[in-house]
Each structure stands twice: as C-alpha cells, then as structure tokens.
C-alpha cells in the first residue's frame, strides 16, 4: 500500500470559516451543559459527606458548564504544515480536561448512585 501526502501550505493560508449554524450549535451545547450541571447538582448525596460527593456536585458540574460554554471548533485535531497530526483541545483548558478525565474513577466510587 502506498500513502501519499498532499502538499501542505502554511497554516495561515486557510483562514477559519465558521460553518452554517455554528453559532446556534455552540449556544445549544452551552445550554445543554447548564442543564446537565443542574441535574448533577440535584443528585442525591451519599450517606455520609465524602470527597467524591462534593466533587460530583461542585467540581464536575462546574467543569461541564465550562467545557460546554467554551467549545471552539477552531481548536480541533488537525494536521500541521509538515503533515504531522496535532491534537486539539476543542477550546477546553487543561484544568477542565483533567477534571473530566476523572469522571470514570469518581462515578465508580459513588456507590449510592443507582441507575434509578
């Protein structure tokens, strides 16, 4: 199999052009994040105060709101002019990403949460 790379020009050659409906989609994502954060804040607390319960109600809900309100389509994965893949962050800062990465660990420790 042969892989051919197209010649890449400087990144400045192609200015970002918003796609049709982008502003509305980003506003809808921010609204969905606010609803999700409100729902998380309404979850029952554990039988005793715990770091996981506090993290779920405070840090996670704030991280979700922040993540969905600052989405940036210009900061997506892309190829650099040399043809190397560059990971984008989608507009999320490092602190928000680190809080969201913790979700699987925290949820498994929140034994008082049930599918109901």
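Sequence proposed for the structure above (116 residues):
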């Amino acid at each position: 199999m042969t892989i051919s790379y197209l010649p890449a020009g400087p990144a400045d050659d192609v200015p970002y052009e918003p796609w049709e409906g982008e502003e509305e989609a980003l506003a809808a994502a921010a609204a969905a994040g606010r609803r999700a954060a409100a729902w998380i804040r309404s979850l029952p607390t554990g039988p005793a105060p715990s770091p996981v319960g506090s993290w779920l109600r405070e840090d996670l809900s704030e991280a979700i709101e922040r993540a969905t309100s600052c989405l940036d389509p210009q900061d997506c994965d892309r190829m650099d002019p040399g043809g190397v893949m560059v990971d984008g962050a989608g507009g999320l800062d490092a602190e928000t990403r680190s809080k969201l990465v913790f979700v699987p660990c925290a949820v498994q420790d929140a034994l008082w949460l049930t599918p109901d």
